[in-house]
Amino acid sequence: MLVLIAEDDELILKTIEHKLLKEEFEVILTRNGKEAIEMIIQKEPDLVITDIMMPFASGIEILSAVQQMDRPPQIMVLSSLGQEDVVVEAFDLGASDFMVKPFSPNELIIRVKRLIRK
Amino acid sequence: MNLLFGSINELTLVFLTLLIIVFILILLVMGYGYRNYQLLSSRRKWTTLIETKILLAILNGSHHIQDDVELKDLLPNKNFRDTFLSVLIESEKKFSGDAYRVLIEIFHTLNLKDFAWAYLNHKDSFKKVQGIEALTTMRVEDALGDIQLLLNNPNPFVVAEAQYAMVRFKDFKGLEFLNLLHTPISEWQQLRLLNSISEVPATSYSFISSLLSHSNISVISFVLSLIRKFRIVAFHDEVATLLEHPNSIVRILAVRTLHDIETERTFPLFTQIYGQQILNVKKAILHAIRKSKNKNSIDFLKIELIEGKPSLQIIAAETLIEFKEKKYLQDLMNEEVSNEHIHSIIKHALAVRI
């Protein structure tokens, strides 16, 4: 299973990466929205975990771009407190799940597994 | 001639002295800049190192961190400890659950608690704020008493951080400081406090009630936000009494709150006090009616469309369109051929809504 993580915070990015590797997922790391969109189109991951606020292209822009694909991947959105409106917009655009920061990395893995099973 | 040479010598001496002073100043500024640059670059390097250590602790547990040679070497450095504390505080905004517990373990294992205490007792207000933030983030309950004393600090930033700490430690009960608060709470601070409150116990209703008659307007504003957030309908009638408050901002916030905790009594109440209100309160009432989609208000809106001030007429017309009264408006346009003003307002509303 291939998971793409789009996150500009290095500590969060690396924590999720290592947690996923431990669970034997294949992982692609991207640090900005534009790079994420390119990689999603190129590598066609099964799941994308994306932060809402990112340089060059936001999580919402990633969601819009992904919906143009023939087989769009599942998207899990990471948001911060107070971004409820954006989360609603993300769901309208096809997001499958969301987590609010601060988040528990262990809970994220449980949710990733559940999404993949679907 | 000697006099002339004497003056030239003196002038040269003065010039040279000035030159030396300027040179020394340039050296000092350069030295200070270089030191800051070095500190900044060290902090960047340390941040990466600390984040790596935190990552490893989250993944494998914090038990190895005490014996970490790199950290042992660096921890005696005050600037490194300061950076470590900042990274830990930042990390708390990222992680919860087990990962958050690991952050607290690191804080205690590396004795950063003493460092944070020292900040709390520092005479510099900025350091005090950092100390409060660190001790609160890392849940050092022993610090609560000392932080509480800072609620009366002359520095407003220290006070704001102490207030926030109270709520983070004690949830709703941490709001007791509001009783005696005479300085305004900023909107940002209100938002921070509001976000940190997870529940309002039913036993606290008399406390909330007393705050609604507080002399500090920002406290009333905050309490109304709290009622809105938790949709505490039990306060409907008490909030309604604020529609007669001498401050129009309170009256506007009361209208918004009543809209959020609406009952069958709300709309009749609005129409009852509408006539005595200033323009902005009237606007707030019309917006509340619009959002509540209360069809009982159609006749009221029709009157307001004819008799209200232009800005109110526009809201009334737009609301009537939203309430599917487009036909009424079109008929009115045909009937009221003489009233160009209403004509243009309806036209405007139709154009906006279509």
UniProtKB/TrEMBL annotation, chain A:
Against SMART domains, the record matches this protein to: REC
* UniProt keywords, alphabetically: DNA-binding, Phosphoprotein, Transcription, Transcription regulation, Two-component regulatory system
Which Pfam families does the entry link to? Response_reg
> Which N-terminal stretch is annotated as signal sequence?
none
Q: Where is the Response regulatory domain?
A: 2-116
Keyword DNA-binding listed? The answer is yes
Q: Which residues carry this modification: 4-aspartylphosphate?
A: D51
* Protein known as: Response regulator transcription factor
The organism named in the record is Sphingobacterium bovistauri
UniProtKB/TrEMBL annotation, chain B:
Q: Which domain of life is it from?
A: Bacteria
Q: Which UniProt keywords apply?
A: Membrane, Transmembrane, Transmembrane helix
**What InterPro entries does the entry give?**
ARM-like, ARM-type_fold
Residues that span the membrane, as ranges: 12-34
Decide whether keyword Transmembrane is in the record: yes
What is the name of this protein? HEAT repeat domain-containing protein
Species of provenance: Sphingobacterium bovistauri
